[in-house]
Description:
The chain is built from one helix and five strands, in the order E-E-E-H-E-E. The protein is of the alpha+beta class.
Amino acid sequence: MPREPAVHLPTPITWNPAPNHHAASMPALPSGSGISWVTLPDGTRTLAYTHPAPIGVAPTPAPPVTVPTWAKTTALLAPTVGGGIGAAGIGISYAAPGVLAMAEALWALVALIAAGTALPLILRTGRGRGGRGGAPVQHITQNISATGLFGRATGTLNNR
């Protein structure tokens, strides 16, 4: 299997002047080559490719960066919505025992209502036939008869 050839990148030329060293002693570069000495943010001077500015034209400053209104609104709403969701979660965790107790109370209320509707029915059935001093129960018998599918119905009522 053939080996890939090693790639050799050129190392940058750096120059760190001594505190008493003057810029006049830097080596001269040919003009128009696009290479010049550049000072990096850490203070190191190095050679770099540059784009020369046209003669007599001042560089234009960068336009100010404006943040769109929708981005500001979203940035302000995001923590508010997140905080609201967090507060709701905390509130639900505090309310959970009360909700469970409320469910138990509602079941007790359902049982009370069921007992309250059943009690009069039980008392009414036990009072029949004059057992507790109530009036005797009346029996009404009604006989209805009709002739034919669409015949007129007639009936008699027996009240005892």
